[in-house]
Every structure is written in structure tokens, then in C-alpha cells.
Amino acid sequence: MIDVSKIAYKTYLLRENGEQLDITGASTDVGWEENEGELAQRVSLNLANVVHKGSRMSSLAKPNCYIIVKAEYGGKSEEVARGKITDWQPTRSSTSDALDLLGYDELFDLQGSQDNRYISAGVGTKTALMGIFNDWGIPVEKYEGPDISHAKTTFKNEYLSDIALELLETAHKHGGADCIIRANKGKVSVVPKGSNSTIYCFEEEKNLELTKYKISTGDMVTVVKVVASEDDDGRQAVEAIINGKTEYGKRQKIYVRDDDDSLATATAAAKEILKEEGEPEETMNFKAPDIPWLRKGDKVKVTARVFTGYALVVSIQHNASNKSMSMGLVKYNADAIKGSGAVQSTTTKKDYKVGDIVNFNGGNHYYTSQDASPRGGNRTGGKAKITVVAKGAKHPYHLIGGAYNNVGGSSNVYGWVDAGSFS
């Protein structure tokens, strides 16, 4: 049990010349946050514009310097937030002279940078992400994410943060672990969500100051209409209508089947839309005494009237001044979070292993190794490469056919398949 009253916060300014100043005594409103849909951690504070060695703080704490926040507890000091100053705003009146500062960690450059990236067929998730980090000069602390082989993909004029998140999401759909990208002490890591070894518990009667729970059906999609491409007269024929939870009303989305897609592929995509957007949205927001080490992507345990169980932190705001924090949570689904992770190289019972070139018989493939239903329609047979082996899974082999790599043939299999579906 952590005694929050014994946590102390220290704030430092790291100048461009390497000098580190302890600005704790001059700092107020110290806070840091990680928001949903953003990669970078944000740090903010109000700094008294006092004189230090003949210079005002406004001339020392400038854009490109770093704000560093550390938490001290039990005789140990640990950095919990870091941000390079991007916003510098001095304010002077008859009663005060202060400086408001805002900064972001190393991942902020990816949020603000567009790029064109080409991912060759067969390139792994790790290689693609490492290429982004290296090109932007972001050092890597550790990579514990998936390494699934990707199909040929072109990104045009897209933000690098969106590209990175899409690569991870694609890998997760193909059986990799669901992961988060985050920075710590100036280095980036890719780690599975909910992989924190210390799990903090929050109970409504003990340490939850505020609980909010919301269920919303407003943004649900309950029907997907599959239509063909326009004919010469501009008309689009309706080819399929896929119903979801229409008891919530009829909220329809159109899916246009490309000419090179089969109807089965388009129908599978429509069902995927219902899977992702066809459920009521449940959100939880809790306020509690601050745990400065808690981060977005961590797993926590909650006991409250609105919800009891494990939850995943999707956003968090820390306030060092009043030692409190606000969390946005979603229910923790272990099956959805976990995946095969990095590519496995161990040999299976039939001695097939990663890297083997096999002859796919043709038929179904699956988006994950545990899916109950196939996706994308029948895949053509031919040569394919084993890229992942997941022992004990329903569909233990991940294949990529010759249409997407250089193994020969034109098989368009790209997913998980059953044992015995190839030779």
C-alpha cells in the first residue's frame, strides 16, 4: 500500500548547455498527462520568474530546454515525466511575474510530422517501426512488440504517429500482441498493453474520489450496406446488407467494393466494421490520489458500484500540486490484448517452422490465430511462407502467399491457417 502523503515531487530544468537546475521551489501547477489518440506525454507548470545568478527564469527556461519531473518515495527517486519546452509564455502584472511552460516528450515530433513511407511485402513490424524511430533520431530503450510480416503498403502524406499506430493495429489483427508506444527518460519503448508488473488497486470506499461510468449508443453502426463501384451512369448496385445490433436503431454505413475485391472480401470487411463500431461505447473516468508512476497502457484493478474488475488506462492526467490524478479507463480484455507477440521460431509437432516455404492448398484464412470465423473469402492455393507459428492455437500457422512476397506463385493467402491446410 502506498502512502500518498509521503510522495514528494521534484521539478528540474535541463538547459541546452547541460546544466540542470532544481526549480521545485519556484514551480506551481505541475502536471503531466497522456491522452487517448496521442503518442506524446505532455508536461506543464507555472514558474515564478525569479532571478537566478543574475538572470531571470524567462531567459533560462526557453523553448528547446527540458522540464523533468521526479517522484521521491521510500528513499528512491524516479523520473516520471519529461518534456521539451514548446510553449513559453511569460506574464507580468503589478502583483506577479510568472512564466507558463508546456513541453512534450520525444514522440511529439512523430505527431507533428507527415511523411511518405513504403513498406515492402514481407517487412516485419519491428523493422518498419525502427525505421521511423531511426529516421527521426529517437533512441529506443526496448522493443517487446509484434513482428508480423506486412503486405505491401504505401502511406502518403500521413502523420508518422498515425503510420506507427496503424502498423501496430495491423500486426494485432494478424495475431500480434496489442501494444503501446511510449517514451521514458528520453527513449522510446514498444510494450504490450497491460504488461505492468505492479498492479494498483482502487476501491470506491477507500481511494476513489470520483467515479463516472457512461454507456453511449450514439456512434454505433448497426447496418453496413455493401455496394459496387459506380457504373457508367453513376449508379451503384447494392450487393449485400449486413445487419448488426439493429435493436439500437438503424445507423447505416456504406462500404464500396473495389473492382479487384471479391464480394466475400467486401462482406468480411463489412462484418469487421460491425465488430469494431457495432457495440455500445463504455467509458469510465475515475479520480484518485496520485500514483505518479502510473501510465497510459497500464492495467489496474477497480472495485466500484459501476464496475468491478481489471481495466486498462487509456488516458491519465497527473497533478503534483494537489497529489491527485484523473484516469480514463476501459474494461481489460485479456484475450484482446494478448497475442502471439514477436515471431516465434520454435518447431511445431509437424516440424514446420518460421521461414519454411510450403504449398498452400487453398481455402480459408483467419485474421487471428484464435478467430472463430474465417475472413476475406477463399484464398488461392500456391507457394507461401510461414511467418509465425503459434503452438496450441486454433489456427497455428501464419502464411503469406507469393502474391505478397518473392517465394513464387500467386497465392493470396495472408493470415492464419489450420494445420493440414498446406504441405
Task: Please give a quick description of this structure.
This protein is mainly beta. The chain has helices at residues 57-60, 108-111, 125-135, 160-173, 263-277, 334-337, and strands at 8-14, 20-22, 27-34, 42-48, 51-52, 55-56, 66-73, 76-92, 97-104, 114-119, 140-143, 153-159, 179-184, 187-192, 200-203, 210-216, 223-227, 238-243, 252-256, 281-289, 299-303, 308-319, 324-331, 357-360, 363-365, 375-379, 382-389, 397-401, 414-417. The protein is built from six helices and 29 strands.
Beta-strand percent range? 35-45%
Helicity, as a percent range: 10-25%
Structural class from helices and strands? Answer: mainly beta
Count of distinct structural domains: 5
Q: Number of helical runs?
A: 6
Oligomer: single chain
CATH class of the largest domain: Mainly Beta
CATH superfamily of the largest domain: Baseplate protein-like domain - beta roll fold
CATH architecture of the largest domain: Roll
Describe the structure.
The chain has 423 residues and is mostly beta strands. The protein folds into 5 domains: 4-105, Phage tail proteins - horseshoe like beta roll fold, CATH 2.30.300; 109-192, Phage tail protein beta-alpha-beta fold, CATH 3.55.50; 200-216 and 281-337; 223-277, no CATH class; 357-417, no CATH class. The protein contains 6 helices and 29 strands. It has helices at 57-60, 108-111, 125-135, 160-173, 263-277, 334-337, and strands at residues 8-14, 20-22, 27-34, 42-48, 51-52, 55-56, 66-73, 76-92, 97-104, 114-119, 140-143, 153-159, 179-184, 187-192, 200-203, 210-216, 223-227, 238-243, 252-256, 281-289, 299-303, 308-319, 324-331, 357-360, 363-365, 375-379, 382-389, 397-401, 414-417. Strands 1, 2, 3, 4, 7, 8, 9, 15, 16, 20, 21, 22 and 23 form a 13-stranded mixed β-sheet that branches. A hairpin with a 4-residue loop joins β21 and β22. α3 runs antiparallel to α4 (160-173). The chain is elongated, with a radius of gyration of 25 Å. It starts with 7 loop residues before the first strand and ends in a 6-residue tail after the last strand. Mean pLDDT is 89; it is low at 340-349.
